[in-house]
Design a protein that fits this description.
With about 325 residues, the chain is an alpha/beta fold. The protein has 2 domains: about 190 residues, Quinone Oxidoreductase, Chain A, domain 1 (Alpha-Beta Complex); about 140 residues, NAD(P)-binding Rossmann-like Domain (Rossmann fold, 3-Layer(aba) Sandwich). It contains 11 helices and 16 strands. The strands form 3 sheets. Strands 3, 5, 6, 7, 8, 15 and 16 form a 7-stranded mixed sheet that branches. It has a 6-stranded parallel sheet with strand order 11-10-9-12-13-14, with helices on both faces. A 3-stranded antiparallel sheet has the order 2-1-4. α11 links the parallel β15 and β16. About 50% of the residues are buried. GO terms for molecular function: oxidoreductase activity; RNA binding; zinc ion binding. Homotetramer.
């Protein structure tokens, strides 16, 4: 089967940063489903894993953590899917990735693909959807179904993939969304997704929030980087919560969090599959919930650019675009 991988961790400008491969087709066992891949998306985590380093793989490494496709075959213990089902999912960072014609994945982290979306549109969603959903509803404890309607959330770095779906999930939960974006293009993008207020995270965030008539916010999601930590601590309400997806070596002073009795949470959407947690199937349930919301017209795809076909050249281009840090929404590569 065809696949795209690499042996050396090289700058993306170098042609051999990705290679077109021909490898053996895997077979499902246990709770795995074998998926015929139709489209994949590229995330910052893909770029981070592939980043240049002094390391060489003896056999080519295949990455990729977002996919939409069709179930080809199932393992003997599978109960959720059958061959022919259309699915979407974000995979498992500890296993071979989705940049291949066929891919094995545990059924517990797979969702029903939205019937109203193409495979390219669906592939843009799983990783960022799981990240935003878990950040808001599992980590911060916001009620998904509207019991916290009217509360505020500040999404720092709202124009990227996680922020783009996060805005929509927050609005579905009835929250007032303050979104940050640094360019006119991304500002227009987050407004189109439902943000109530848009501010520039390259300027004084605190002053801009206060100028909107808001002293404190109930919840804060840091979806770009932790240089905004002190700003988040200043703006969070007493007993509020902050969540971040960015690992950091920057100082994180905690005195302001203590005096506000505020909470801080890390979100890492691979944690459940990496550690085989007892509630791993929650990712199946949340993806199916979002599928229902999409098919009902309440949430839209966040794809902004589609490349075709899935090969080394287009994978290099997709990674290059994500590396710029300027992409809005998601970059997708479709069809082998």
């Amino acid at each position: 089967m065809k696949a795209v991988g690499f042996t050396h961790y090289l700058p993306i400008e170098i042609e051999s940063a990705f290679l077109d491969l021909d490898i053996e087709k895997p077979q499902p066992e246990g709770r795995d489903v074998l998926v015929s891949i139709k489209a994949v998306a590229v995330n910052p985590v893909d770029v981070k894993v592939r980043a240049p380093k002094d390391k060489v793989e003896e056999t080519p490494r295949i990455i990729g953590y977002d996919a939409s496709g069709v179930v080809e075959a199932v393992g003997p213990d599978v109960t959720l899917f059958m061959p022919g089902d259309e699915v979407y999912y974000a995979g498992d960072i500890t296993r071979s990735g989705t940049n291949a014609e066929f891919h094995l994945v545990d059924e517990r982290i797979v969702g029903r693909k939205p019937a109203s979306l193409s495979h390219a549109e669906a592939a843009a969603l799983p990783l960022t959807t799981i990240t935003a959903y878990e950040a808001f509803f599992d980590r911060l404890g916001i009620d998904r179904d509207g019991a916290d309607a009217g509360q505020s959330i500040l999404i720092i770095g709202a124009g990227g993939g996680v922020g783009s779906i996060g805005i929509q999930l927050a609005k579905q939960a009835g929250l007032m969304v303050i979104a940050t974006a640094s360019r006119s293009e991304t500002s227009d993008w987050v407004k189109s997704l439902g943000a109530d207020h848009v501010i520039n995270h390259r300027e004084d965030i605190v002053a801009q929030v206060h100028a909107s008539g808001i002293k404190h916010v109930d919840h804060i999601a840091i979806f770009n980087d932790m240089r905004h930590w002190n700003t988040a601590v200043e703006l969070i309400r007493p007993q509020g919560g902050i969540v971040s997806i960015d690992d950091t070596d920057l100082p994180m002073p905690m005195s302001g969090m203590k005096t506000k009795a505020a909470s801080f949470h890390w979100e890492f959407m691979f944690a459940r599959s990496m550690h085989q947690t007892p509630d791993m199937i929650e990712q199946h349930h949340l993806l199916c919930y979002v599928t229902d919301q999409i098919d009902a017209g309440n949430i839209q795809t966040t794809v902004s650019k589609v490349l075709s076909p899935i090969n080394a050249a287009n994978m290099r281009e997709a990674h290059r675009l994500v590396e710029t840090g300027q992409a809005k929404g998601k970059i997708v590569v479709e069809e082998f």
